Amino acid sequence: MGLAALGAALCGAQFAWALPVAWLSFSLLLPPPESLPMRVAAWMVLPPGAAAGAWTAAALTAAGTAAYALAGPRR
Question: Is this prediction's pTM over 0.90?
Answer without folding.
Answer: no
